[in-house]
From TrEMBL:
The keyword Nucleotide-binding does not apply. PANTHER family: CELL DIVISION PROTEIN DIVIVA (PTHR35794). The keyword Cell membrane does not apply. It is found in: Cytoplasm. Its main location: cytoplasm. InterPro entries: DivIVA_domain (IPR019933), DivIVA_fam (IPR007793). It comes from Microbacterium capsulatum. This is Cell wall synthesis protein Wag31. Pfam families: DivIVA. Residues 111-146 form a coiled coil.
């Protein structure tokens, strides 16, 4: 397996039940792969440095294929296992820092999204409140108009009723003299 830095960054370990952390065998296997790939890179680096030294000294060296980008945090050429361990620790620290930075970025994005959503909800609620207030104001104006119409109708009706009753009383007074006496005698 050709190991790339992206493989190291994206490697996911399975959680083990009833224990904290990852499956130790899986982690050890992955670290073994990392060590093998780094050793290959170190050997290739040594070979390329030897070819470069030969070329610089004037010897003709056979054309070598383009060297891959050096692995970041790789231990020095011919490094001891402690250097490889230090490189792995440095790589792990860098991965940790990248994950923390990514987490902070995601946190900031989530906060920004939540604030935008809250602002939208608030704006929608304010718009709904304005529309409802306007509707209630229109209803109030209609009801006040009806109340005014009813007051006017009441006044007009009272005036007409008073005029009618007064007219009837006048008619009764004009015609009522003899008929009132005859009605009283009949009883």
């Amino acid at each position: 397996m050709a190991l790339t830095p992206d493989d190291v960054v994206t490697k996911q370990f399975q959680h083990v039940r009833f224990k904290d952390g990852f499956d130790p065998d899986e982690v050890d296997d992955f670290l073994d792969e990392v060590v093998l790939e780094w050793r290959k890179a170190l050997d290739e680096n040594t070979e390329l440095k030897a070819k470069l030294a030969a070329y610089e000294s004037g010897e003709k060296a056979p054309a070598a294929p383009a060297a891959p980008a050096p692995v970041a945090a790789a231990p020095a050429v011919g490094g001891a296992p402690s250097n490889a361990t230090a490189g792995i620790i440095e790589l792990a620290q860098r991965l940790h820092d990248e994950h923390v930075a990514e987490g902070k970025s995601q946190r900031d994005q989530l906060i920004a999204d939540a604030k935008a959503q809250a602002a939208k909800i608030l704006a929608d609620a304010e718009q709904k409140q304005r529309e409802e207030t306007a509707r209630l104001e229109r209803e109030r104006n209609v009801l006040e108009g009806k109340i005014t119409e009813l007051h006017d109708f009441e006044r007009s009706y009272r005036t007409q009723l008073r005029g009618y009753i007064e007219g009837q009383l006048r008619d009764l007074d004009e015609k009522g003299g003899p008929s009132v006496e005859s009605a009283a005698a009949a009883h």
